[in-house]
């Protein structure tokens, strides 16, 4: 009996410290943010105002506009990123010369070695620079198109944010898709070849069906990143021009650091959490339906 107790106590003792650390640095901040969303903070004091912070943010036209911008940027970001990455993985997977395929794998990994800040500044100051000497403006000038302001044009700012990082295939994401393609049994491709299936039909009916788990992973990770992201707004556009690129994450940042409105910032954080959670549940539900 004593031996059984020791077998139970020892694992629990080893888990106490990690669980305490998780509670302190992960669970407590989340619970604190939810509680703070029902409070009004003023000079170090606070009082319950219940749902007033939520009423305030949803009654704010700028927040509603940022919400719309977030949806647009998230949807296009997920589509562009996943389609381009999967397309690259298919190209490398179908290359007949495996040696050349390995060379391209290393080449497409190089962008992941460049710090993200450097990449953003390159796009801001060189690729999509608003000056006539900018790379894209110089190319368009050859065809007689006037220089564009890109990030600082209300009409083109969202397009510029989405276009940043083109062709959206750097990093290790394509390797995950490629590994998924390589894990598909060869018998599936042989049977498809005997049935006269074309390349497009094979991609739709075999590859995509068997890459559901990878696609779900990238959708969830991409959703979390897009909902929380505001790096381009912080570094380049400042949410402008005329709030055309403002997103909830950037408003949360401003209210926390600039305006010091902890209550509304916490309410925005809770809303973003619920959006992310709903997106994750929807992705899991859709993938479960595909697998069944």
Quick structural gist:
The chain has helices spanning 2-36, 52-58, 61-93, 98-109, 116-127, 135-142, 157-163, 173-182, 186-194, 199-210, 212-228, 231-237, 248-258, 262-291, and strands at residues 39-42, 45-48. By secondary structure, it is mainly alpha-helical.
What does this protein structure show overall?
The protein has a two-stranded antiparallel ribbon with strand order 1-2. Helix content is 72%, strand content 3%. The model has no long low-confidence stretch (mean pLDDT 86). It has a domain at 52-112 and 172-291: MetI-like fold (Orthogonal Bundle), CATH 1.10.3720.10. It has 14 helices and two strands, in the order αββααααααααααααα. It has 292 residues and is an all-alpha fold. The protein has helices at 2-36, 52-58, 61-93, 98-109, 116-127, 135-142, 157-163, 173-182, 186-194, 199-210, 212-228, 231-237, 248-258, 262-291; strands spanning 39-42, 45-48. It starts with a helix and ends with a helix.
Distance between the termini: 46 Å
Number of helices: 14
CA gyration radius, whole angstroms: 24 Å
How does the major sheet shape up? 2 strands, antiparallel
The helix-and-strand class reads: mainly alpha
Which strand order does the major sheet show? 1-2
Specify the CATH homologous superfamily of the domain at 52-112 and 172-291.
Answer: MetI-like
At the fold tier of CATH, the topology name of the domain at 52-112 and 172-291 is MetI-like fold
Q: Name the CATH class of the domain at 52-112 and 172-291.
A: Mainly Alpha
Shape: globular
The second-level CATH architecture of the domain at 52-112 and 172-291 is Orthogonal Bundle
State mean pLDDT (0 to 100 scale).
Answer: 86
Q: How are helices and strands ordered from N to C?
A: HEEHHHHHHHHHHHHH
Please estimate the helix content. Answer: over 70%
- Extended strand count: 2
Strand content: under 5%
Question: Uncertain segments of ≥5 residues (pLDDT<50)?
Answer: none
